[in-house]
């Protein structure tokens, strides 16, 4: 199980059922394709930086090689998004070209058990700090507020994984919003992480009971199952 599955259940248990129990297929999603492209590009870029300087031209070559074309409306849509991606990476390059930080790990995979259930996942980047590590997650979507990041589940999950699966001390949890070039950081106390594990255990219990009631709302508008769900909010 992944932590994103827990998030899906919390948003809407029925969506979880469609996706992970019934395995209802969905068409390719351009936002997902673009996100994968940017993540893979930054992974390869920083991997090369470990050994030598990398020019902007080389970064854009990496981007082109990692480009995922699926899910776009048509060729014009693909071209527009491709050019937007280049602009984002040019901005990223300018912001980080003088940063001498050497990542401790890139796309670090992890496995751990919570309530007997095996969880797996991958952390985009881990940087060493004086007294622990900084967990960095790249985001291609809209920039969140500090308040939203402070309440965000995903960074808490990564902190749990870093601590329990990787034996690291997560002192700083950061979202790097590529579009705006903004980094927003937060922290989690040991008590908060324990509470989050309890929350996960509760969700696992609901899943085991087969409780998959619909939770309708504005989020239905961008749900992959909107067209087949009889409970979808149509506002």
TrEMBL record:
- A Pfam family matched by this chain, by name? PDDEXK_1
In terms of InterPro entries, this protein maps to:
PDDEXK-like_dom_sf, PDDEXK_AddAB-type, Restrct_endonuc-II-like
Q: Which organism is it from?
A: candidate division WWE3 bacterium RBG_19FT_COMBO_34_6
**Protein known as:** PD-(D/E)XK endonuclease-like domain-containing protein
Q: Which residues does the UniProt record annotate as the domain PD-(D/E)XK endonuclease-like?
A: 1-230
- Organism domain of life: Bacteria
